[in-house]
Amino acid sequence: MKVEQIYTGCLAHAAYYIENNGEAAVFDPLREVEPYLERAKKDNAKIKYVFETHFHADFVSGHLDLQKKAGSEIVFGPNAKPNYEAIVAEDNQIFNVGSYKVKVIHTPGHTMESTTYMLMDEQGKEHGIITGDTLFIGDVGRPDLAQHVVSDLTEEKLAGHLYDSLRNKILPLSDDLIIYPNHGAGSACGKMMSKETTDTLGNQKKVNYALQEMTKDEFIEALLKGLTTPPGYFPQNVLMNIKGYESLDSVMDRATQALDPVAFEAAANETAALVLDTRDAADFAKGYIPNSINIGLEGSFAQWVGEMIPSVKQEILLVTYPDKEEEAITRLSRVGYDNTIGFLKGGFESWKNSGNEYETIQRIGPKEFEKAYNEEKPLVIDVRKKSEFDSEHIIGALNIPLNEINQHLAEIPKDKPFMVHCAGGYRSMIAASILKQRGWDDFVDIVGGFEEVAENTSVAKSDYVCPTTML
């Protein structure tokens, strides 16, 4: 049986495509559906079903556009209550895709409608399970997301449901089944996911901490330990997936408005739009439109947009490299940010060449940092995650994780200089742009972040502490 995994690295997301005898099915599709339509066209097949493992929190699914464009039927598992036409399947219900069969296995825990789909080939042999966010490679789905939509679904209750689902529905299955999860390492939907994107169930029974023998209370404690606060856009995406959303075609039509510098400035002044600059950190630092925020398209763009822009309804004006506008709009819409109202025609260079005011951010390399650190002892602000900071950090540095920076602005001085860094320079430039927008000016960004400092300076050899190792 052939199962095609369609993996999107920036979201650590896996969709799946199967086809047999002219009928196809897609599982957990991304917002832009053209790749699935083209894939089915290549097979001369009709996409009969769109199977959803649950109402996703970290992206907006493409099920509604596939329903509209391909005539596909949308399938959810038990307990789902979508606000649009869909099949809400029963536990153990079987769907035919050509001569293949797809069996519904209700596995609540990540959410109450969470469902695993068993794939069976032409002979009826069980091939694998598409597990959604129920079971990952090395991990299981976090149980604290649904409570942000339904308050009485506490994380303890959901973790208990997940324990039962794994023990009663997953563990009894054959060891040779292939696991096809919805996410891999880098997703915020779990905490210990492997970089591998498939495995056998038998191997996961051996190595996955959540599948080891333990009581329900022990499982709940292990699952909840170390969970970080989910990104703020997660519950907003869940509601979009439940209630429905605007077609991506309409979003693109509205967003792909090329604005010259005069029109762009007028739009920025006349609306509440955020100016989002998606160029890389080095180019942004050399010159950017005042009050714009930098989130580079070449990094974990969608995830950081979701972390740093509180509302998916926020109007956005884009600054991109030429010919990157549609990619930026698409990636914004993947996580529900559908209100881009235009982009700067010709990119930042057109703004600069028109004689408009622009700002810069001062940056220094690791050697300059070493000299300043030894001679001036400036405040160093580390915007990496707490776990990264706890592993190793520059002595005296203040840890303010990027996704928490807006809650800790009072800790950042305006009356003395400081330095900002992350691991490699991507997150620190996001932080720098936010600080500039909020009125901070007397600081520098460290090029290459902690990685470059550790590799190229004596500061890193003698002046950073590694608590984990010391313990």
Explain briefly what this protein structure is:
Pfam families: Lactamase_B, Rhodanese. The chain is built from 18 helices and 24 strands. It is of the alpha/beta class.
Could you walk me through the main structural features you see in this protein, from its secondary elements to its overall organization?
By secondary structure, the chain is α/β, with parallel strands linked by helices. It folds into three domains: 4-237, 4-Layer Sandwich (Metallo-beta-lactamase, Chain A); 246-353, 3-Layer(aba) Sandwich (Oxidized Rhodanese, domain 1); 363-470, Rhodanese-like domain (Oxidized Rhodanese, domain 1, 3-Layer(aba) Sandwich), CATH 3.40.250.10. Helix content is 33%, strand content 21%. It has a six-stranded mixed β-sheet with strand order 1-2-3-4-5-6, covered by helices on one side. Strands 7-8-9-10-11-12 form a six-stranded mixed β-sheet. A hairpin with an 8-residue loop joins β8 and β9. The model is unreliable at 466-471 (pLDDT under 50).
Q: What topology emerges from the helices and strands here?
A:
Elements: E1 4-8, E2 13-20, E3 23-27, H1 34-42, E4 46-51, H2 63-70, E5 73-76, E6 87-88, E7 94-97, E8 100-106, E9 115-120, E10 126-132, H3 155-170, E11 178-181, E12 199-200, H4 201-207, H5 216-224, H6 234-243, H7 248-255, E13 258-259, H8 261-270, E14 274-277, H9 281-286, E15 293-294, H10 301-308, E16 316-319, H11 325-334, E17 340-344, H12 347-353, E18 363-364, H13 366-376, E19 379-382, H14 386-391, E20 393-394, E21 398-399, E22 418-421, H15 426-437, E23 443-446, H16 449-456, H17 458-462, E24 464-465, H18 467-470
Parallel strand pairs: 3-4, 4-5, 5-6, 10-11, 13-17, 14-15, 14-16, 16-17, 18-23, 19-21, 19-22, 22-23
Antiparallel strand pairs: 1-2, 2-3, 7-8, 8-9, 9-10, 11-12, 20-24
Helix pairs in contact: 3-5, 7-11, 13-16
